[in-house]
Amino acid sequence: MFSTAMLGVAVGLTVPLVTRAIIDGPVTRHEIDLLLPLALLALGLSISEVLLVWARRWAQSRAVSDLEAALRNDLYIRLQALPMEFHSRWQSGQLLSRVTADLSTIRRFMGFGLLFLVINVLQLVVVTILLLRLYWPLGIVVLVAAAPIIVVSLKFEKKYLAISRRVQDQQGDLATRIEESAVGFRVIKAFGRREHVKQQFNGGAVKLYDTSVDKVRLASRFWTFLEVIPNLTLVIVLLLGALAVGREAITLGTLVAFITLMLSLIWPVESLGTILAMAQEAMTSADRISEILDTESTITDGPDELVNPRGHLRFEHVSFRFSPDSADVLRDINLDLPPGTTLALVGATGSGKTTLTSLVPRLYDVTGGRITIDGHDVRDLTLKSLRTAVASAFDDPTLFSMSARENITLGRPDASEADVQQALEIAQATFANDLPWGLDTRVGEQGMSLSGGQRQRLALARAVLARPAVLVLDDTLSALDVHTEALVEEALRNVLAATTGIVVAHRASTVMLADQVALLENGTITHVGTHAELLATVPAYRTLLAAEEEEVHA
Amino acid sequence: MTTTQQTPPQSSTDQPAAQQDSWRGYAEEGNDELSRATTVRLKEQSRKLLGELLRPYHKLIWLLVVIVVVENAARLAVPYLVHLGIDKGIPPILAGEGSKTLLTVVAAVFASALIQAAARWLFLMRSGRLGQTILLGLRRRVFDHFQRLSPSFHDKYTSGRVISRLTSDVDVIDEMLETGFDGLVTALLTLIGTSVLLLTLDVKLGLLALLSFPALFLLTAWFRRRSAIVYRRTREAVVLVIVHFVESMTGIRAVQAFRREPRNEEIFWGVNDKYREANLESFRINAIFMPSIKGVGNITIVAILAYGGWQAYHGHVTVGVLTAFLLYLRQFFEPLQDISQFYNTFLSASAALEKLSGVLNEKPDVAEPVQPAQPTKARGHLQLRNVQFSYVDGVAVLPGLELDVPAGQTLALVGTTGAGKTTIAKLVARFYDPTGGHVMLDGIDLRKLTEDDLRERVVMVTQENFLFTGTVADNIRFGKPDATMDEIVEAAKVIGAHDFIMALPDGYETPVAKRGSRLSAGQRQLVAFARAFLADPAVLILDEATSSLDIPSERLIQRALRTILDDRTAIVIAHRLSTVETADRVIVLEHGRIIEDGTPADLITTGGNYAGLHQAWEDSLA
Fold first, then answer.
1. Phi and psi dihedrals of B518, rounded to 5?
2. How confident is the model over A26-39, as pLDDT tens digits?
3. Interface touch B291/A50, C-beta < 8 Å
4. Which helix (H) or strand (E) covers residue B400, if one does?
5. Domain coordinates in residue numbering, chain A
6. Does domain A2-293 have CATH number 1.10.760.10?
């Protein structure tokens, strides 16, 4: 690629030399016989220059687009493997900008920038040497003129980068405002706070405007400078060159060639600033990308396979904290769930129920103690076999912009139609069959919009269909009306009879699904027993789950 | 309830996705696929929008035109002056007649260089600032318009689209203004200026140079056509990449818990590869276009060189003219190559402008009154007179509802999903207007109230307890922007949120979104309640507002509710009967009709639907 590029530059540069030969030979010295061969030579050179440029671009296009796609793929694979702990720190927008904007920056630099950087520098050097050889006093003039350009370019670039970064940051702030105004639209509407939100937005927009105008001001000065220097150099070259011709120090042809060559430098010089800025940006982008690629996944496969899991789940002195310097969220959790039993987990808002359930499929790893399934520490199992054995339905059901079927069969892609229907039946989600394209209807943000209850039921069907040895239901029924909830609970009873279950419950009716109830208080299990036992003996449990009746009628 | 009815395709041939894309499922593409007529209309709209955006600055724009013409004139003068320098300046020197002519010419070059620089600087500055001003105006306008549009529009349009209109689309226009505009103008002016100058310098050589025009025209036409196609492909491909990526990352918990990674990788590789192919194609079009332009340029230059050399040999043209020609031709072809670099920017900017003009042409379904009523002090007397409503034509959600809620009453709505509870709430909050009948507050039809008057009187709290970036206090203050800190604390105390807020690291000044101080769903809901309480409306609507609370928090809220709802009208929708039982009056809805109406105690004793629900609920509490 580089060889074709250099060849291209070389060929391009010889054309002005042929021009000189034509002016000095056929025109000035009347050697008309030379005109045709020289013209043909020029033609041949021009065409080969074009072919070389084409060949270079053609070869480059595949290399660059392949590189970009491969990098994007690597990033995606790496990100999917990184644990929840990573994802809770990074906003998806931040990750997206790496996969789109940063990779495009790198693509553009590799596609145009890098090569032009080399070509331009090369052209500058070669042309300057040529100019010096054509007529050295004029060559020196050009050389002297180049110095301020380089100095100013470097200085400009630093400033420009800083201001561009500021623009980007402010765009980010504005984007946050926009996002909130879109997502929180109904709240803004409900309170009639349009003016308030508008003012906040305007503030951000004006700030961005000011910075952008600063950027324009800086860029205008620089671009003008880049144009004025070559023109001023031309003035001097024309003056000294014409005088030199007058003194017959050089021929007319040389002067023409000199001016043509010198003007061929304008574009490389002008674009040098842009290209250097591009190089900087590409460098930053590469840094941002390697931030992710260099992050080691802390949750990785263990050595053991879990074969035919029975689902004996044990928590042994489990503790957990989100980061080493924060306090324990869970401490000294001990639970024993023999195969087939169901445990209801009850606790106040924020007591750590969801965190506790996330530890089983290793969405997070325990920071103390251990969790075992059939006697294996979950960390000793391959993630595949662990997560096949454990399926969860979350309180906040995630549906992807895919067909309903793809969403349901997430945990078991090979499920038969009958299995799918059965799961839909259990979750009271047969409405999915009545969507416009049945189960092939796209749901999620980019497809059909479903109500919260419908989404929850699909997510439940997904978890049930996976036929796990351990089923985790994290307040899965909160958005259902009483009637539907009763039906779902009825059906779930059969499912839970066959698997080990953890059910996070806020209501007595859900607790009834379980054999035992564990009360989670301040990050640890304080009581375990049946619903009736706890209701009778534990005041804290009563507060959480007892009927509000007496209060209502009080 | 939010499910929008969509018509299934007539036959399987209508199904848009190819086999390997079966995972995506089918959906109506809605705004993505456009008919020809719509395209034409969109083009017109976006031209109109562009006109509107530029109109206030027409004087400045004319000034910019003058500046850019001066700049280009000065730029184009340079080769001509070089020709004069060589043809008129050198002979006198050779003849020993001094260098006066040469010095004059050099001074002229110097002057034009300065003029060019000054004009260029002015142009870049002024046009850059103008671009930013227009952009600021556009941002504000679109933002404000989105906020004016009705919830029904937002339901359909989705927040994702709103965000991308205001971010990526506006950014693309910004990029166009920054990079493309200057290049386009310069290329155009150079094209015209050069042609004229070449013909003036020497007609024969000029005509020879102009022979390259048809070739250039064909090439550019080809490039534009191909680029437009590939551009569309690229956009389509990148959207798929983005959607899949964002969903994988936001849903990473489900992805990992269900071992979705391998299948996701397959899918991602598929969409990524399509994007790669589209990129490759776009590179290749450039790989053909740019060298071809260069080729035409080179051949023209060689032809001029050969023919010009021949003419010069015969003394028909001078060396200076020949040099000027060569310089002009170089200036002429270089900007043309640049066009390919910003053509995509140009395409995306015009596409973005089309989308933005489409949004700006949306009218709010719920319009501000032309002659607003002057309401007296709000009491909160609600009347629904023969109210009809349907989301989809022909499918009535409310077939004709009569309901009178006296001021101060707390009314609970009960019924199965789809019975019309939320619809009533949305009509009272005027998120929608009824398709028939009247919703009236204190005797005034809601359609006659200004937005400000209405929102001051009616506030709705939903399950969507959205908190904005900022502190807890900021979020409560949202209910009443001029509230003092004491009022905020007071509101939080009444709701029962004070204790947990004080337990946060910085109390009321704790940022709600920052890591480590994240609030639980229940806590967020308490903040949302405090916000509503602070707003102090005459009518408060609670749509499933308590369902994400655990029982202790709900109990807390319920205690507070008695205070809050005491002196105002309230409509409460709740799945939990514990909340319903606090109401003065319950109505049971079925298919948009009232089937039971009375106090909770009455309904239990009469033994209807409600009594059944109540019994089931009591049993569940056992």
1. -60, 140
2. 777 777 788 888 88
3. yes
4. strand B398-405
5. 2-293, 313-553
6. no
